[in-house]
Design the sequence.
């Protein structure tokens, strides 16, 4: 399947009549109605019978029995006709027989001709049935490769998929004054178990090992994570309503948040809009439902634990589930947007009573082949955590408390693979609005460089071209050179909260990504790309990079 079609999630299935279509040339028997004698027609009948027997010999026992019964009946009918005709002829005077000889011969010829035509039609029908059975027999059920796409599952209903990526290359380090430094990252290894409980109840999970995993010993030198990013049951009532049980699920906003496997985007790192404005992978405790509205139009609704304006570690979460005194990091800020705002998943440690609501429409209109897109909105009535405070002190020496602050996110994206060409286009727009930005912790933490305005936004456009490389090492390879332009502004201005207005333009950024992705098959990709980062600060972001990677999805 072409890579672009896979990304658009098209499935092309051959129709049954295409698979079973049989063409037959009836020229094997050429009936001529004039000038043929009875012996000639009888020989033709014999040839048809032999041919019919050869066809029937290939069929199963049921077809053989039916065909033999038909042949016996026809032979008996012919014998009866011959005997009756002979008896009538012997009773007539010879003169009459001679006078009617040619007429009788013509009558027999016509009768045999009709029988031959009927036999030919029957033989065609039998051959058609036989070919259909052979075609159905040749359409074997797909192999049971439910374990990582390579081996059968030992448990009925259990499937385990996997995806991952390994990264390497060189990048600028802003903390080292922009020095280029080489590095390596065992980015992630993700297991995707599913279990079909019943025909209409399916369990889904995603277990992720990031950056090499976790090890506490100094000689292990591992500082990664192990996370449960999905765990829920889907209960299907019909195509239009599928209930998603309480559990851990992805927030349904942005294509890249829902489908972030490395074979589905062309750069080494995820697209820039997915690294802050939409903090992929954005999971949350949640429940909801989804389904089909009409063909080509689907919906999803979710209620989840709200994002939190708290970006610090658990040491700064008090036992009262409020920030500890002495200051804490903001979850929403002008440097990384919402990257630190996800609520925790475990042990009832969330710091907000507020729910959040998300609604998404995905569309793939039949009148525009190759096009797919989605639009989604997310709303939290309050992202301020309980006990949130400003660093500003009141007259009594206590910190000024922070009030409510609603957050609304809108995202829309589109992907278009131009039919019958290798050209592919993508685009995305994301917008975030805060009802009361003066209550954001970033605007009240005495750090004026990370301040946030009334809103944030970003947009991107990408062009790619799919180039077939032919059959290499037994598979059809494809190369996809691409270019992506991204602009995002995380600090749109304004003076809110107690901090001074010290925004230096570092949140207003532009990215240019250029590179190539090579697919030996749709489940494996090798990538190489260069990223140029630009902002409006005095020194610049000093965040250029040249990276390569290997990614897979099974």
Sequence:
């Amino acid at each position: 399947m072409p890579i672009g079609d896979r990304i658009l999630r098209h499935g092309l299935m051959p129709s049954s009549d295409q698979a079973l279509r049989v063409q037959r040339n009836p020229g094997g028997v050429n009936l001529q109605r004039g000038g043929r004698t009875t012996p000639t027609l009888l020989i033709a009948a014999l040839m048809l019978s032999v041919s019919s027997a050869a066809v029937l010999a290939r069929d199963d026992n049921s077809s053989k029995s039916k065909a033999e019964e038909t042949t016996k009946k026809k032979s008996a009918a012919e014998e009866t006709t011959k005997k009756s005709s002979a008896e009538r002829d012997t009773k007539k005077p010879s003169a009459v027989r001679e006078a009617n000889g040619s007429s009788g011969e013509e009558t027999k010829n016509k009768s045999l001709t009709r029988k031959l035509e009927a036999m030919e039609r029957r033989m065609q029908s039998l051959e058609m049935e036989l070919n259909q059975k052979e075609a159905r027999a040749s359409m074997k059920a797909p192999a049971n490769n439910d374990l990582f796409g390579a081996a059968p599952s030992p448990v009925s209903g259990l499937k385990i998929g996997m995806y991952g990526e390994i990264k390497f290359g060189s990048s600028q380090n802003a903390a080292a004054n922009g020095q280029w430094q080489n590095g390596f990252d065992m980015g992630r290894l993700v297991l995707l178990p599913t279990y079909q409980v019943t025909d209409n109840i399916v369990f889904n999970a995603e277990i992720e090992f990031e950056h090499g995993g976790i090890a506490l010993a100094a000689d292990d030198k591992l500082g990664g994570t192990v996370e449960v990013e999905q765990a829920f049951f889907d209960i299907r009532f019909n195509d239009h309503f599928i209930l998603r049980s309480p559990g851990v699920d992805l927030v349904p906003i942005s294509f890249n948040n829902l489908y972030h496997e490395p074979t589905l985007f062309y750069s080494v790192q995820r697209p820039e809009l997915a690294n802050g404005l939409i903090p992929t992978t954005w999971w949350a405790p949640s429940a909801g439902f989804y389904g089909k509205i009409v063909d080509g139009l689907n919906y999803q609704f979710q209620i989840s634990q709200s994002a939190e304006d708290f970006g610090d570690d658990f040491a700064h979460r008090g036992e009262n589930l409020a920030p500890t005194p002495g200051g804490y990091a903001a979850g929403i800020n002008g440097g990384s947007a919402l990257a630190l705002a996800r609520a925790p998943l475990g042990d009832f440690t969330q710091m907000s009573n507020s729910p959040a609501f998300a609604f998404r429409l995905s569309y793939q209109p039949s009148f525009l082949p190759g096009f797919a897109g989605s639009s989604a909105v997310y709303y939290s009535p309050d992202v301020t955590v309980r006990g949130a405070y400003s660093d500003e002190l009141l007259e009594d020496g206590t910190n000024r408390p922070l009030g409510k602050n609603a957050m609304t996110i809108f995202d829309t994206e589109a992907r278009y693979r131009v039919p019958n060409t290798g050209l592919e286009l993508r685009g995305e727009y994301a917008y975030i609005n805060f009802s009361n930005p003066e209550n954001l912790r970033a605007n009240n933490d005495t750090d004026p460089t990370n301040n946030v305005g009334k809103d944030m936004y970003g947009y991107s456009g990408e062009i790619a071209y799919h180039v077939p490389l032919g059959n290499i090492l037994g598979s059809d390879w494809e190369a996809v050179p691409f270019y992506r332009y991204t602009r995002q502004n995380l600090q749109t201005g304004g003076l809110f909260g107690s901090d001074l207005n010290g925004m230096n333009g570092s949140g207003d950024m532009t990215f240019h990504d250029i590179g190539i992705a090579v697919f030996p098959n749709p489940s494996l990709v090798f990538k190489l790309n260069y990223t140029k980062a630009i902002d409006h600060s005095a020194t610049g972001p000093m965040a250029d990079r040249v990276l390569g990677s290997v990614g897979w999805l099974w």
Summary: Residues 6-39, 59-67, 89-93 have pLDDT under 50 and may be disordered.
